[in-house]
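Sequence in, structure out.
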Amino acid sequence: VENGVIDSTVPESFEGIPIISDLKGLPEAIRESGANECIITDPNVSGDALFEVMMRSGRRRGIEFRIAPSLFNCLPRKTEIDQIGALPMITLFREPLSNAARIVKRLFDLTISLLALTIISPLWLLIALLIKLDSRGPVFYKQERVGMDGRIFLFYKFRSMSTNSDDTLHREYQKHYIAGNPEANLGDQKQPVYKLATDSRVTRVGRWLRRLSLDELPQLFNVLRGDMSVVGPRPPIPYEVEAYDLWHRKRLDMKPGLTGLWQVSGRNRLPFDEMVRLDLYYIENWSLLLDLKIILRTLPVMLRGDDAY
């Protein structure tokens, strides 16, 4: 901006903090206000002009300058700033887990899944028998899901619905849910819901399995195969991903999980955007201790059947 004018339409102040629209007037404004910090928010400001002002105004007086990047929405919470020559660089994309962390998480997944399969194997036999007695069809339900980095994998569950069920209703519901308008009621309730509460496709045994989240147990095989993790974001269906905004896709940066922050923090009561924010928090703050805490919180949620349909 050669003449120093950034924007002539901005207000003079915001919540008592002076706003300067003329870069050339910034040194005088700093002197008059006694400011010790200056925040640059205009993405079009000239770098050379700003550098000159910083040298004249800030260096001698210890003024701290902050620059708000215009691409803020694409920045993760944790960023790395380094320098190539004299040019500062912000690292936007990086592996969410280091090589060592991935190995630790994988060993943890194998240990938990093998232990769980050993302990609950009698329960599997009971569930399989009840499914066969209740309705015609296979014991297991297989479906394509989207995993880490958008990779498609085959996802296993105990069958809780009648065979050859039409998914049109669920597709329509998910479209509204992801768009943030779940008030488009597709069940028989008269209030907004964040999961299809009334689904005629669900069998009698399936309703019980879903209430206790027991239909999810076969996903332990997905964990053993490496498609999933014990803890991670919920694995979406391909047609759900098609409705995602770009920032929603950040949740595909880590393997999906059997449970996660979403499941223990409100589950089906949460709007979709809030669910994604929980997933991103988990991805950016992963630790083995966090996984253990989520697993311990999952068990009572399952037993109570909180917000499950």
